Amino acid sequence: MKELQKVNIDEFKTHFQGEVMLPDNAGYDEVRQIWNAMIDRKPALIARCTSPEDVVKAIEFGRTQNLLISIRGGGHNIAGNAVCDGGLMIDLSLMKNVQVDLTTRRASVEPGCTLGDFDEVVQAHGLATPLGINSTTGVAGLTLGGGFGWLSRKYGMTIDNLLSAEVVTADGSQLHASESENADLFWGLRGGGGNFGVVTRFEFQLHPVGPNVLSGLIVFPFDQAKSVISQFARFTETMPEELNVWMVTRKAPPLPFLPEDVHGKEMVALALCYVGDPEVGEKLIEPLRGFGTVLGEHIGVQPYTAWQQAFDPLLSKGARNYWKSHNFSQLSDGVIDAIIEYAAKLPSPQCEIFIGTIGGQTASVAPEAMAYSSRDANYVMNVHGRWESATEDEHCIAWAREFFAKSQPFASSGAYINFLTQEEADRIAFAYGATYNRLVELKNKYDPTNLFRMNQNIKPV
After folding, report:
1. Which of 106, 307, 381, 404 is the most buried (most CB within 10 A)?
2. Residue 4 has pLDDT above 60, yes or no
């Protein structure tokens, strides 16, 4: 590092209230590590922000020093854009405050919060907003890419519940974005990722949920996959919005409710959550048990926060991950056959194929109403490659890519930006579809030099 740079860093530290970490500082390696172990990058420095003013100072420093800038919220994104090599990593993970206004049922949320942080605070009041399905996911990245989970059929996408945002733009301005103020920026933040600025506070609409919900898993043998998945496809087309059922096929983990001879063997599981009277929910889900021979089930009334953490053990930090994803308006025989073909040759015990069911209220918003436009996506499929050793990279990635290609003819338009890997820059325009050109115009306005490019990048013209 040049002496001039050291002088500049020392100057930066005098104006920055948070912690500035360099590669030789204790804890540097821990802070730079993110969820996906395939990403191993080393920033020249890490600015651990504690306030919006810190974010302003960090962006100003990165811009004046001509540094590549990455933004870390929860550090969970598959593409690993939270961390850069040789540049400035702006770390928001210390900014975790959540405030609830019970009168308006609104939550004010800082960008370092995980889903678990958010849910813990709002569920104390029996409230929630649609988020993802893994409690260690960051609220910021999830929201900026769209966001969906168990509550989305009833209450929409995460961005459909975003009421306003505080944003620091590339020139260091602090802006309030909502339907009535900087409305164009607000439009772009709802699905446009980190392309237009750094959000330092989100304001969400909350809804009465739980605190206990009917939820759980039903597991079927893999040799009945065609019947089970076909019936799942038909059932989910007509189920009420209060109910959500997802499908996953993988090798069975050693779950206590499954017989030991099932552990490690391929299976099909239906995961469900009902937001309403559990007795009504029980009647609605009863048909699911008739989809095949039930190997085991674990369904009951439990805290919503517990269900939000149910899949955490299968998605823990430190494994190598590679995803491919498609949207579907419906699940045809062709895609079901492709799922079964590739689930029969999983390259690792941790690999899986899941279908997240959305539709319902997510389809009630006009495609051009905000940056996220895939309102015809009733299902989002994630080909989740996951393994432990770099020696498995080639085999596991090839499996995911082959299945992605095999299932592509049956997919609908668009793609879920949060599931795109870093290599998929060629899919960004396709992912946004009708809103892409407007997003480019917005990028020209708010970030014409492409300062924020460690993301699924919308390049300015």
Report:
1. 381
2. no
